[in-house]
Amino acid sequence: MEPRPAATVIVARDLPRASRPAIEFLVIRRTAWSRFAPGFVVFPGGVVEERDRELAERWFGEASYAPRACAVRELSEEAGLVLTKDGLVEAPGRLPGEDGLMPPDAAQIREIARWVAPDFLPVRFDAHFFAVAVAGEANPAPDGVEADRAWWSTAEDVLAATRAGDAPLMWPTLRMLQVLAECRSISDVLDLDVEQIAPPSPV
After folding, report:
1. Is 10 helix (H, G, I), strand (E, B) or coil?
2. SS3 category, 64
3. Phi/psi at 73 (nearest 5 deg)?
4. Which of 145, 52, 133, 39 is closest to 92 using CA atoms?
5. Count of CB atoms within 10 A of residue 33's CB?
6. Torsional sign, CA 14, 93, 127, 146
7. In the chain, what are the domain boundaries?
8. What global pTM score does this model have?
9. pLDDT of residue 203
10. Element (H or E) spanning 175, and its range?
11. CATH number of 4-190
């Protein structure tokens, strides 16, 4: 089966009021009734839909930016946060271009990885991973349909929760968090070019 095009967005910000430099990332937990990866902790994202080509044309001037449009749309839908030209806005149920929310520039959304699921998986995606730098303390609002929790966390804290059995991760999310944990600045995150490493084969 051919993998379905998909997009994921890693939203990064400097940890507010931190005593030492640190970076937080927006993560969500998929609902228990999700058809794909129920209960898993992930970054916002989903399957590229036909309407994403139209959104890409409207926001970025090119339909080929559909994966970027998908990432921005999913961020809005799953976490209630709208990425605009001026930053992140708490606006559940809305998208860039609505109510004066100026769409972001394509250059704000940096592709840092691409993961193609191996053949042995029953559900396969060809996922573009994008990184976005934001400032401020925008509070996510999970939609309750795809996500039942959304929060800011350091990569180290998510990995610690995974080791404790409290945050199940899919392989690409695990690998990305391991790489993000090594970043010491937002610039480090935006400059990433993460090589895909194959997951362990099933026994």
Report:
1. strand
2. helix
3. -65, -45
4. 145
5. 10
6. positive
7. 4-190
8. 0.94
9. 45
10. helix 171-180
11. 3.90.79.10
